[in-house]
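Q: My labmate handed me this sequence with no annotations at all. I'd like to see what the chain might look like in three dimensions before we decide whether it's worth expressing. Could you predict it?
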Amino acid sequence: MIPASFEYHRARTIDEALELLAKYGEDAKILAGGQSLLPMMKLRLASPGHLVDISEVAQLKELREADGLIRIGAAATETALLHSALLRGKCPLIGEAAAQIGDPQIRNRGTLGGNLAHGDPGNDHPSVMIALGASVIARGPAGERRLPMDGFYRGLYDTQLEPLELLTEIQVPTPPARSGAAYLKLKRKIGDFATAASAVQLSLGEGDTCARIGIALTNVAPMPLRLSGAEALLAGKRITAELIEQAAQIATGACDAADDFHGPSEYRAQMAGEMTRRALAGALERARRD
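A: Here is what I predict for the chain of 290 residues:
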């Protein structure tokens, strides 16, 4: 189908983008990579009268480390994440998740900020960012807000972003030494959304005890699902095969997946447990090698 008519605006700075949002109000939508918005417009599920293109705002493409945080501009593409030497060295989980999104054409256009702001429970980065303990920065008429990713999602396609706010940056605490991570994703074919997926980031302390852990699931509930019960089970303990099995069972029991073309709800819940089991084992092995 063909989208309804709209006016196109290209912002060169963050302030210009915010001015355009303020001018056109709720009739305006931000266009970054367009991988979610444009298909919705073609299906007439979204019909904004104005598109504000932020893809050329240089500040929104920056990727750097400062003050113990990895700071990623919201318009950084999946390809930029995948090829970032900083992320490979300090936080490889982000690039590993990016590698499992779509195909090269989608990764060349799709952005981290768009993936997070869209609110689709099938998107891969939300669970990864929850597991990492990340936050996002949003700017709007009331100024700047820092929003933790844990709690950012309120429901299906529903986030804490206000209509006139722009997501500008993602802030990820730099993992300490002896950290490991894994993102395990079961899908029907390459480039597909997850039938179920699990993101794990953990750090080890003295005696190989778990000093910090984050676990979150993709596409098995109306929004990304943090496994706080499994985290509490493992935190402060030496992670064993028995504890990993218990955590996998918690993952299975926490799911609220629907029957759809990805598979029956019971199957998807079982696969969430299996992905969590494998992700925990992989993250633990990496942490011990670090």
